[in-house]
Inverse folding.
């Protein structure tokens, strides 16, 4: 049964799109609600201004102090306002003497006729936004009309959510393109890396087979030695079969069984111990610890992880006398496997990167060995794998934790 990542990915995209629409709608609704409240407040100010003028018009001038009206009622007005006659005309004494206009910018060089046309157009635009408020005498005769528009704050608030949505959409679009390119590059690197990792995996048994064939040619008369070599060739062929099986299981759900951890790890150690002399390197490889603890695991994939850790240790050893030790332990909940070496160690800053696909400090490496190991342990076995300790020039210890049977 293959594992498919399509539907969850689609669901996440739908959820993210829904959340984005919800946020945009909420922002738009909230902003428009603020605009309506501000418009109501501004209309109340204009109505109060109109009532003040009506009060003055309907009261004897000797009894009214209009200073308060024009110094206090007009102060909060920061939006365009025009007082006109009942037939929507503005009184223009001169280009610089237009008392019935507030917060409306106009060109003082225009002629009287041009200014009348300008204010006529302004009144029409204002009336499209807000119904003018009439100032009446004795509640029947219209003395003048008050036309007004929106303040700069309301205009900014009205268009702000749309600008915000456009900027957010542009950012999401650019981010999508960027992440798509990154994803394509990662996928390309992974495919190339998988090909290199496959060649790397086949390299060990194939090189070993070539060595056994040469020894077989030199020892064909020694029947006992021929039998030993034949057995080792059989082991390498089996190894090739295991590698094929491992790669066939990428993306599929592996079969998990209760297995003795020490025995599974020892298979890998024994395989490498017989082939280390052929590499021409002096490395002591050993295994010790609890031989009875068991865990739920897939033999082939678990062996792959131990192989990757041993190969990683071999690559890290620069001393003439290298040491690699595999230790199997048991804690209250876990079967613990540690792979230690006396290699060059890992810089503290790089410990988080070593499990990242594509990261490698080796010239011939493609950085998939530890990444695959992490996926095998954490995804397929629900365990943990991490760097327990590491010191530059002294060595590294990787630790695996698997739930006990």
């Amino acid at each position: 049964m293959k594992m498919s990542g399509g539907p969850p990915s689609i669901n996440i995209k739908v959820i993210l799109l829904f959340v984005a629409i919800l946020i945009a709608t909420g922002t738009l609704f909230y902003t428009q609600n603020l605009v309506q409240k501000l418009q109501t407040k501004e209309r109340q100010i204009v109505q109060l201004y109109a009532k003040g003028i009506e009060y003055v018009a309907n009261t004897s001038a000797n009894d009214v102090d209009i200073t308060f009206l024009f110094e206090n009622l007009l102060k909060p007005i920061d939006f365009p306002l025009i007082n006109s006659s009942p037939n929507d005309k503005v009184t223009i004494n001169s280009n610089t003497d237009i008392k019935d206009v507030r917060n409306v910018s106009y060109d003082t060089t225009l002629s009287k006729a041009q200014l009348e046309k300008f204010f006529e157009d302004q009144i029409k635009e204002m009336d499209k936004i807000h119904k003018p408020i009439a100032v009446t005498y004795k509640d029947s005769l219209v003395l003048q009309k008050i036309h007004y528009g929106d303040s700069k704050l309301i205009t900014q608030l009205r268009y702000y959510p749309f600008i915000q949505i456009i900027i957010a959409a542009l950012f999401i679009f650019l981010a999508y393109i960027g992440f798509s390119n990154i994803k394509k590059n990662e996928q390309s690197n992974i495919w190339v890396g998988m090909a290199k990792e496959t060649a790397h995996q086949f390299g060990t048994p194939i090189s070993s087979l070539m060595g056994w064939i040469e020894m077989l040619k030199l020892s064909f008369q020694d029947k006992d030695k021929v039998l030993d070599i034949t057995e080792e060739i059989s082991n390498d062929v089996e190894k090739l079969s295991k590698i094929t099986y491992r790669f066939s299981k990428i993306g599929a759900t592996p079969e998990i069984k209760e297995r003795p951890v020490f025995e599974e790890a020892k298979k890998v150690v024994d395989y490498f111990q017989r082939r280390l002399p052929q590499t021409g390197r002096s490395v002591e490889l050993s295994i010790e610890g609890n031989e009875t603890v068991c865990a739920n695991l897939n033999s082939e994939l678990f062996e792959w992880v131990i192989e990757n850790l041993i190969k990683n240790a071999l690559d890290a050893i620069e001393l003439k006398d290298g040491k690699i030790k595999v230790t199997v332990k048991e804690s209250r909940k876990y079967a613990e496997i540690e792979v230690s070496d006396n290699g060059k160690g890992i810089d503290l800053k790089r410990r988080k990167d070593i499990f990242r696909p594509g990261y490698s400090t080796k010239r011939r490496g493609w950085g998939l060995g530890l990444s695959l190991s992490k996926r095998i342990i954490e995804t397929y076995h629900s365990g943990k794998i991490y760097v327990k300790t590491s010191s530059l020039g002294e060595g590294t210890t990787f630790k695996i934790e698997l739930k006990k049977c």
Notes: Residues 152-218 form the longest helix (67 residues). Residues 6-150 form one domain. The chain has two domains: 6-150, 249-403.
